[in-house]
Design a protein that fits this description.
Helix content of chain B: 10-25%
Largest interface: A-B, 82 and 80 residues
Largest sheet of chain B: 6 strands, antiparallel
Shape of chain B: globular
Number of strands of chain A: 23
Radius of gyration of chain A: 24 Å
Number of helices of chain A: 10
Oligomer: heterodimer
Distance between the termini of chain B: 64 Å
């Protein structure tokens, strides 16, 4: 879009922000926050051999939060003028049901946090024709992979999210988050029906992503995955050893314990990990980290959506639970400093505790050896999404490329299925960890209806027993 | 084009009037407001008020389509958005079938989905409803140890659509809900369940049902164990069947047929499901959560019979896919919000209810599994291959009676086999917040994977 390059958020200077926060606190609020956002995005879809969908758009607005006691009031507006913001501030403050009066002065201190993800080429400045050409190339490469390829869908997405966060504790910070993502899905058709294969790449960076990620390669591997599954047999049904390939999608940890280590679930005692800091909750081979500073990763940001610099946090150290993840609200209740995991989907949403990039550190076994030492089991080369019930710890995750392991060798491909396990049990049952760490595909994590980008990663590892949800007899 | 009924429709017509010669322009405008109140431990945890407005503009020129959106209804932003949609169209591939719908003379159903009552329901009353709900769940059973949250939510939404080729539509609706998450047991072994009630106005809500659903379902799961793997008959509760029937909207999309990736392509007129299975998508049903007078392209919604006595009768089409297939649209265009271009989808899928209550369905199958909730539907159901595998929890059924609770297992099959295997459909039809109604459904056999 031919948006004026002028930075909309720049009009929100310290004077305006101070007055808005002051108004939000005017009826006795203890804490007030302004979150302003200007987000542009575009999507292109190449489907069925042609450019089918091109769409783009822009949204901007601000959310205002006021906290009184245990109550949070929230209102948002698409009017980024002082008048619009003052009205939202009054609505949020009324929602917090604040009683008394009193004027409070807010003293802001502007913080400069370097982005972990510098951008070379803004995707919005790259011609649409060049993007279409990438889609066309990927479509061609996928179709060239085999005569059984029936259908190819290729997506290109980019987004630029400029945020400004200020609060009554003096935080005043900005960030400029640029993300690019490319995905290919392929349907192949054979005697046994149709099968699907997908591959995607995404990073918190500009269009330079394509200098290192070859779209032809992505397309070929998506197609090969679909073609391979044409000869897949039904997955086993029951408990088996499962080997998970490096970088296949750290969704295992995201679901098995990531959500259960979010401080909101802990505070409400709806996590199986509540009250267990200092305990051995996992195999000693497990060291799990959440790191929002990880350069160019999908969940990387300079600041979280509450204006606090992101951090690297060790959650589990050699199997011992060391800490949970925190947002401002939960950290405040526990009297802790340094929350860094408060995130929200947009200015229309309240922040809550969320993961950033969550990953398992390397062990020392070679991946080949892990397979060789598994007499019978399942080898998962690509994972799909997952879901967890933090209260019981039960979680599922899908496998979208998997094989049987027989006599220490990877053999027959398997059809798609979910796997199910119990978080604490699975963490204890990890009995080998490889030395081949890799990050997985760009994920979108959903919680209470809000989606945020997250990164995940892990080396090859084995779980002694996981339930594979297939249909084989 | 009709005279505008609302200021929003007037604005949409104005934007449509900006079309240049040889160009088709469609403006979809949406505006709304809402409230959400969450309580925890007898206090308001958060109270949020929402207000939004936005536009999605489609341009077709030279049989190429482009789309752009903006979170604003300001005229200068709308003009800029139209320009962007034009630019996007210039990069799309031209196809004969691409174009906006023409009015087809079908009259919109006389639905009244707006309740003035909601506007008169105060914020204090909303907060009180959520607090009461939490309290009722906490005191319903001594085994409830926690209420994770109790929530009141409501929304008032307005839409308008107009195109330069004559479509024009305006509609509005209200909705509200109460939902609660109950936790039973102790810290060592907890079970959790959700309860909710939905309506278009506060007087249509049934909080006692939400309480009972959450409490009964959490408590009856106490002591659940992982079952041994087995192949057995499976009974789905209404809220589970609504989730799964909703997926059929995708599988029955005419667009998927055209693209050669539908399970059901080439099977029109054939038996794809058990004889007891008659499936319609009917957004003109006023009780449906997805009820709507107009589809997302401004055509009047209509009742579409998709499967009749097990025989596949029709697919769903929007204008583009219908033109390509050489058939009439079924007025099945949907959009997630003003931020997306329309696509094909179902709004109100419903299976014709059978004669039996849930206990009668259980008696009918004798031994099997009653499923009360499923997880991992997005990761375990492949609408192209038909492979189906989801996490599940529920109760074993023995001699037609509910038995031991079981959890941490999957149930698996294929969509094709499940449709053929429907042996009973319950009479307990329930419209849930989903694009499908739920009812108890029994399937002759699925694979249960446990220990």
């Amino acid at each position: 879009m031919t948006h004026a390059a002028g930075d909309l958020l720049a009009s929100l200077d310290e004077g305006v922000v101070t007055r808005v926060l002051g108004r939000a606190l005017a009826t006795g609020g203890e804490f007030a926050e302004l979150f302003a956002e200007d987000r542009r995005g575009s999507l292109m879809t190449f489907d069925d051999g042609r450019v089918e969908d091109l769409s783009s758009g822009r949204e901007r607005g601000a959310g205002i939060r006021v906290v009184v006691g245990n109550t949070t009031g929230f209102a948002h507006t698409a009017e980024l003028t002082e008048a619009g913001l003052l009205a939202a501030a009054e609505a949020a403050s009324a929602a917090a049901r604040s009683g008394g009066g009193g004027v409070r002065q807010v003293a802001l201190s502007r913080a400069r946090v370097e982005s972990p993800s510098p951008v070379e080429v803004l995707p919005q400045e790259v011609g649409k024709a060049r993007k279409v050409e990438l889609l066309r190339r990927a479509d061609h490469s996928a179709r060239a992979a085999g005569g059984a390829v029936r259908q190819v869908t290729v997506n290109y997405r980019d987004s630029r999210r400029q945020v400004l966060v200020a609060n009554s504790e003096g935080v005043f910070a900005t960030d400029d988050q640029v993300r690019v993502r490319f995905g290919v899905s392929v349907v192949a058709s054979g005697d046994t029906g149709m099968q699907t294969g997908g591959e995607s790449a995404g990073a918190t960076m500009g269009f330079e992503l394509f200098a290192t990620r070859d779209v032809d390669q992505l397309a070929r591997s998506a197609a090969e995955r679909a073609l391979l599954k044409l000869r897949a047999r039904p997955a086993p049904s029951g408990q088996l050893p499962v080997v998970i390939k490096a970088g296949s999608g750290g969704v295992l940890f995201h679901e098995a314990c990531g959500h259960g280590l979010e401080a909101d679930h802990i505070a409400k005692q709806v996590s199986v990990f509540a009250g267990r800091v200092g305990e051995q909750v996992a195999s000693p081979l497990v060291t799990l980290v959440d790191d929002g500073t990880m350069t160019h990763q999908w969940g990387a940001m300079a600041i979280d959506d509450e204006g606090h610099p992101t951090k690297r946090n060790v959650l589990i150290d050699q199997g011992v639970l060391t800490d949970y993840m925190w947002d401002w609200l939960r950290a405040r209740k526990e009297g802790r400093a340094g929350p860094a995991n408060g995130r929200r989907e947009s200015y229309q949403h309240l922040p809550m505790v969320r993961m950033t990039n969550t990953f398992l550190l390397n062990g020392d076994e070679s991946p080949e050896e892990i397979i060789r030492q598994t007499p019978y089991g399942v080898y998962v080369a690509q994972l799909g999404g997952g879901q967890v019930n933090t209260t019981t710890g039960d979680f599922v995750f899908g496998m979208t490329e998997a094989y049987l392991i027989e006599d220490g060798q990877v053999t027959e491909p398997l059809r798609d299925a979910n796997l199910i396990g119990n978080g604490p049990e699975v963490l204890r049952n990890i009995d080998v960890v490889g030395n081949d760490f890799a990050m997985g595909w760009p994920g979108t994590c959903g919680k209470q209806g809000q989606g945020v980008p997250v990164g995940m990663g892990q080396p090859t590892l084995r779980v002694r027993a996981l339930t594979v949800g297939g249909t084989a007899r | 084009m009709n005279a505008p009924r609302t200021d929003l429709e007037q604005l949409a017509q104005q934007v449509a009037g900006w079309a240049r010669p040889g160009e088709e322009v469609e403006a979809y405008l949406a505006r709304g407001s809402g409230t959400e109140a969450r309580t925890y431990e007898g206090e308001v945890e958060s109270l949020s008020s929402e207000a939004y407005a936005g536009a999605g503009i489609r341009v077709v020129a030279g049989h190429r389509q482009g789309f752009a959106y903006a979170g604003s209804l300001a005229p200068d932003v709308l003009a800029e958005t139209l320009e962007e949609a034009r630019d996007n169209a210039s990069f799309a591939s031209p196809e004969d079938w691409v174009g906006l719908p023409r009015p087809d003379g079908v009259a919109p159903a006389p639905l009244e989905l707006w309740r003035e009552e909601l506007a008169g329901f105060t914020t204090a009353a909303k907060v009180a409803a959520a607090l009461d709900l939490e309290k009722a769940v906490r005191s319903a059973d001594r085994r409830i140890r926690q209420v994770e949250s109790a929530t009141w939510g409501d929304s008032s939404s307005e839409m308008a659509l107009a195109s330069s080729v004559g479509t024009s539509a305006a509609d509005r609706s209200t909705a509200c809900y109460l939902s609660v998450t109950a936790v039973a047991g102790d810290a060592a072994a907890s079970q959790v369940a959700h309860g909710y009630t939905v309506g278009r106005a506060p007087s249509e809500l049934d909080p006692a049902k939400a309480v009972n659903d959450a409490v009964t379902r959490a408590v009856r799961m106490l002591g659940a164990t992982k079952p041994r793997s087995a192949h057995l008959p499976v009974v789905l509760e209404p809220r589970v069947s609504a989730q799964l029937l909703g997926l059929l909207g995708q599988v029955l999309s005419g667009e998927m047929v055209l693209k050669g990736i539908s399970l059901f392509a080439g099977h029109l007129g054939e038996a794809v499901a058990a004889p007891a299975f008659t499936l319609v998508d009917d957004p003109t049903e006023p009780a449906a959560w997805g009820a709507s007078a107009f589809d997302a392209e401004g055509l009047a919604c209509r009742r579409n019979v998709l499967i009749e006595d097990g025989v596949l009768r029709a697919f769903l089409y929007d204008t583009t896919s219908a033109r390509r297939a050489g058939t009439q649209p079924t007025a099945s265009a949907v959009r997630a919000s003003y931020k997306g271009a329309p696509g094909v989808g179902a709004r109100a899928i419903c299976l014709t209810p059978g004669p039996m209550s849930q206990p009668e369905v259980l008696a009918h199958i004798g031994d099997g599994l009653l499923v009360q909730s499923v997880t991992g539907v997005h990761s375990g159901v492949n609408p192209v291959s038909g492979d189906f595998s989801v996490g599940a929890e529920g109760l074993l059924v023995q001699g037609g009676q509910l038995g031991a609770p079981v959890k941490e297992m999957t149930i698996a099959s294929t969509i094709q086999r499940m449709l053929q295997g429907v042996v009973a459909v319950g009479a307990d039809l329930e419209w849930l917040p989903a694009p499908a109604a739920g009812m108890t459904i029994a399937i002759s056999e699925m694979s249960m994977s446990g220990s």
